[in-house]
Design goal:
By secondary structure, the protein is an alpha/beta fold. The chain has a single domain, classed as TIM Barrel (Alpha-Beta Barrel), CATH 3.20.20. The protein is 44% helix and 14% strand. It has twelve helices and nine strands. Strand 3, helix 8 and strand 4 form a beta-alpha-beta unit. Helix 4 packs across helix 5, helix 7 crosses helix 8 and helix 8 runs parallel beside helix 9.
Length: 306
């Protein structure tokens, strides 16, 4: 069980993230709130929490006025916070009952997240594979060596960018990774590439431990699970948003959330083959808790008795 939306919870707790750095802004202003969110997701049943590094890039932090050393420290801090919260949570025996030791995943957002213009829902950057690898390289190595259990390349809208990151993954072996794509429909990434081709590209790597989709409407998830399953035998990951859509111009969510009961939906996703399940934008600890409760018997059957 993955966690849910970080930015959503930061806003609920009074943080203003209307900023090019998005949730990473809180790393600079009040990291204690990020600690609280990580803890609450673990308490809700998450087996993996993701660092607040999705939109934290060297270039973006320097644009804010930090020097390179400060930018590096901020990115490393995003993982350190999550590791410290996980270790503290796991130190209490009551938190271990029926649970696996939670993992910490270092979040790697796409180039579009740095642009902060909604390009992660487009993917047509006009950059080649080498240019994208160069952009990601320094942050990638920082996160791969940060003490996280894995990296998660999430909301990936572009096949070219995906291939660039697979190349960097080879350079940081044996670090494991999850790849999760953002899709415009049940078969295509936002750049128009076939989801099948993207899944195939990452599945060839032994370091990739799961592959799937995130920040898609819940209504698309069943079709997307079937699409992913046709392209890989790796574990399938799904963590959708609420179904609302993001307006990059006004920096607001619009539309109506899908009328989905996440607890019932999680059972369907599991039956269709998803084995790593969570939530993305506009979901919170209550969604994780509902899904965990719905899947408790299935999950706990995989946890060795101790």
């Amino acid at each position: 069980m993955l966690d849910g939306g970080l930015a959503t919870e930061l806003e609920v707790r009074g943080c203003n993230i209307d900023d090019p750095l998005w949730s990473a802004k809180v790393l600079l202003e009040d990291p204690s709130v990020i600690r609280d969110v990580h803890h609450d997701y673990l308490a809700a049943g998450a087996d993996c929490i993701m660092s607040a590094s999705y939109q934290a890039t060297i270039e973006g932090l320097e644009r804010r006025g930090l020097n390179r050393s400060q930018a590096v420290n901020t990115i490393e801090t995003s993982v350190r916070l999550a590791v410290e919260v996980r270790d503290s949570f796991w130190s209490h025996p009551d938190n271990r009952i029926g649970r696996l030791r939670p993992l910490v995943a270092a979040s790697v957002g796409p180039y579009g997240a740095y642009l902060a213009d909604g390009s992660e829902y487009d993917g047509r950057y006009g950059l080649g594979r080498d240019e994208l690898a160069s952009f990601h390289r320094e942050r990638w190595f920082l996160l791969a060596r940060s003490g996280a259990d894995m990296v998660v390349c999430e909301t990936m809208p572009s096949l070219v960018e995906t291939r660039a990151l697979v190349g960097l993954l080879r350079e940081t072996a044996p670090m494991p990774a999850i790849f999760s794509f953002s899709c415009r429909d049940g078969a295509h990434l936002y750049d128009g590439s076939l989801l099948h081709d993207a899944v195939d590209a990452v599945s060839r790597s032994e370091q990739v431990v799961a592959v799937g989709v995130n920040c898609v409407p819940p209504s698309l998830v069943p079709e997307l699970i079937r699409s992913v399953a046709r392209a890989t035998d790796k574990p399938i990951v799904v963590y959708p948003n609420s179904g609302e859509k993001w307006n990059a111009t006004t920096k607001t969510w619009f539309g109506i959330a899908d009328p989905v009961d996440f607890s019932e939906a999680a059972k369907e996703w599991y039956e269709l083959g998803a084995r790593v399940i969570g939530g993305c934008c506009r979901t919170g600890p209550e969604h994780v808790r509902a899904m965990r409760d719905a899947l408790r018997l299935r999950f706990e059957s995989d946890v060795p008795s101790s």
